Amino acid sequence: MSPELYDPAEHRPLAGPPWSEDAARTAIAAITDDAIASYRGPHRLWPNHPADLDDDPADRIFRCIYLGAAGMAWGLDRLAGAGLADRWPAIDELATVLPGDYRADPELTELETGTPPPPPSLLFGESGILIACEAITANDGPDRQDELAATIATNARNETRELCWGSPGTMIAAEAMWRRTGDPRWRELWRDSALWLIEQWEDPVWVQDMYGDSSRYVGAGHGFASNASVLLSGLDLLGEEGDDLAERIITTTAGLAQRDGPLAQWPALADAEIERRPVQWCHGAPGIVTALASAPADWRIDGLLAAGAELTWRAGPLCKGVGLCHGTAGNAYALLALHHRTGDERWLERARAFAMDAAADVTAWRARHGQGRFTLFTGDLGVALLLADCLEDRARTRSSFPFLDHPLG
């Protein structure tokens, strides 16, 4: 395999036991039991993991989807709804207090991510917390929905122009509410952000004004792929304004691809000549595959997605961890997405192999650090959701990346 497409030092050989449904269910139970046992109440929440803190104090409280309690509550609720865990008795109380506690003490205010700081973003801000609480305790009154609508409107012109902080993320919340309720305000909120986002699309990809810099990210975490996925998901809401949008997305995806025989990779940045070639959800082939798997059938995109998934498989599990964002679980979702797109059982088998590897890695990391990693996007719960989606009764019917696809179910 071409070393120019990825860095072998960032990966390791596949490990973990063979796939079995019993083993998967046992691993799901171990992760959920550890999360519930480690919960410290609705205001202290979960202990942070050293790998998630950077320069933050160990006792910093996170409530957001990506790193915090809202993501944990959403994931635990999703597993209970699938019949894979008992419904956690404390979850309703947590969903009730999270929005107000976040507003009283917002996190990540020091980062340059739009106005106001922090913006009410999906993964790091208020809108994600509100949509997670809506998923957990639906029909809890109009006030929360009004608050959610206000956050989406506030974020419609966020100049990060990406998923984590910007309007593509809050568009996910608007579309989910439109699909659930049919209330036209959600459709109009989605369209308002979408039309601005399309207008802002420069060649080849959007510019992200973020963290004090301007960049042109390609991948699913901060860049082109996630923006394209959000627009594709709502094409029916655009009408004639969406004409030729899918073609432009496919053409851009093909133009940015780097090919080596049966393999494909995408750069982290559209305008960098020499850089890392990460193979993970947030940057690189796995995120392109998961984001673009819903694109219309086309020989160009079909071949590229298969080649990107092949690179993901051959590169192997990631050394840096198990999580959805930049770990083995996120890469496995690329293999699952291709299974659902093609019906090829080989991709399901490979996703399951990655899932069992990630489950074993969760156990190893817990033993090494003396605690679990209690986040949705970087931690253990993403592995539990992956294992659930690999089970026989779900693998045939679902193809959804946690929270970003169908956050309301």
Describe this structure in words.
The structure is a single chain. The chain is mainly alpha-helical and 409 residues long. It is 50% helix and 3% strand. It has helices at residues 21-38, 69-81, 91-104, 126-136, 142-154, 167-181, 184-199, 224-233, 235-238, 245-256, 285-292, 299-315, 328-342, 345-369, 380-390, 392-395, and strands at 208-210, 213-215, 258-260, 263-265. The strands form two sheets. A two-stranded antiparallel ribbon has the order 1-2. Strands 3-4 form a two-stranded antiparallel ribbon. The longest helix has 25 residues, at 345-369. 53% of the residues are buried.
Could you provide a short overview of the structure?
This protein has helices spanning 21-38, 69-81, 91-104, 126-136, 142-154, 167-181, 184-199, 224-233, 235-238, 245-256, 285-292, 299-315, 328-342, 345-369, 380-390, 392-395; strands spanning 208-210, 213-215, 258-260, 263-265. The protein has 409 residues and is mainly α.
Labels describing this entry:
3% strand; 409 residues; two-stranded antiparallel ribbon; single chain; 4 strands; mainly alpha
The number of helices is 16
Q: In percent, how much strand structure appears in the residues?
A: under 5%
Mean pLDDT: 95
Order of helices and strands: HHHHHHHEEHHHEEHHHHHH
For the CA atoms, what is the radius of gyration?
20 Å
How is the topology of this model organized?
Blueprint: H1 21-38, H2 69-81, H3 91-104, H4 126-136, H5 142-154, H6 167-181, H7 184-199, E1 208-210, E2 213-215, H8 224-233, H9 235-238, H10 245-256, E3 258-260, E4 263-265, H11 285-292, H12 299-315, H13 328-342, H14 345-369, H15 380-390, H16 392-395
Antiparallel strand pairs: 1-2, 3-4
